[in-house]
Design goal:
The protein is mainly alpha-helical. The protein has a single domain, classed as Up-down Bundle (Glycerol uptake facilitator protein). It contains 7 helices and no strands. Helix 1 packs across helix 4 and helix 4 packs parallel to helix 7.
Length: 190
């Protein structure tokens, strides 16, 4: 299935033609529906006072830290860039040696991204993860930041990876067999 779990990753994969448009659209719709369902389940599981106080874990820009909405978009874009570039390097690129271990470098990049941006923007990197709590809790503050930033970062990462490593990749041609004499036999004068 691809197992993207993240519309930003799916958009990046789609932009460079590694997934068909219909499949990408279905992935994104399903991912967003899953995020919303998760947010609604969380709202149903928590007492009203708790889910309202916690905003259901909504990702919000930390304005007291001096982070403007524009800076938050840029930061979410950069964080998502690192994520998507890594996904391409270890899971999309056919030359990946240890595809069965792709989760390890992806997880390490997610950890790095959360440590770097978690206190500033929540380090969402995933529009579905942000939409779920926003819709379930009715808190749409800064929502555009988490749609524009990750999708933009994903498009830049996918395009850069495509042009740097995939588009002009040499196609390996299997060698042809040559006779033991080193080449085709020639008619030699007697």
């Amino acid at each position: 299935s691809g197992g993207h779990f993240n519309p930003a990753v799916t958009v990046g994969v789609w932009v460079v033609g590694k997934i068909e448009t219909l499949r990408a659209g279905l992935y994104v719709v399903t991912q967003i529906a899953g995020g919303i369902a998760g947010g609604l389940l969380l709202r149903a599981a928590l007492p009203v006072g708790i889910w309202k106080a916690s905003s259901l874990g909504a990702t919000l820009v930390s304005h007291p830290a001096g982070i403007t909405d524009l800076r938050a978009v840029l930061l979410e874009g950069i964080l998502t860039f690192f994520l998507v570039f890594t996904v391409f390097a270890v899971a999309i690129d056919d030359r990946g040696v240890f595809k069965s271990l792709a989760g390890l470098p992806i997880g390490l990049v997610l950890t790095f991204d959360i440590l770097m941006g978690g206190l500033l923007t929540g380090a969402s990197m995933n529009p579905a993860r942000t939409l779920g709590p926003a819709i379930a809790g009715g808190n749409y503050k800064d929502l555009w930041v988490y749609l524009v930033g990750p999708v933009s970062g994903s498009i830049v990462a996918a395009t850069l990876y495509w042009f740097s490593f995939l588009r002009f990749r040499e196609v390996s041609v299997p060698p042809t067999e040559t006779p033991i004499g080193g080449g085709p036999e020639e008619d030699l004068p007697s």
